[in-house]
Amino acid sequence: STPSNSSAASDVYKRQVLRPRNLILYKNESEYTASFILPLASIVNVVDIDAISKTKVHCMQIITDEKSYRFCAHDEESLVHCLGTFKSLLAKRKELEARVSVSGQGTAAAS
User: CA dist 14 to 11, 25, 52, 75, 108, Å?
Assistant: First the structure.
């Protein structure tokens, strides 16, 4: 069993699915009910981090306004692919937000 004080989300969630609007986490490979949903709109950044243990060496951290989540991939190729996908989605969101604010349709006032 997984220790309750584990800081790596990948210890608890065995399947992660990245959709255009959400990161969805499942407890196991065969489960169809999401255990945790993280809206992509809440993600500020995703970064490559140092190994968190001897067996968890390909790791990344998802940073939100309120909390950070650490995940580990099975291998370096999977980590690079995942980081690239997140960075692409975050860049597209930033581009869309910039386009909306330039067109004057943004709801947040610049300070």
Answer: 7, 8, 17, 15, 38
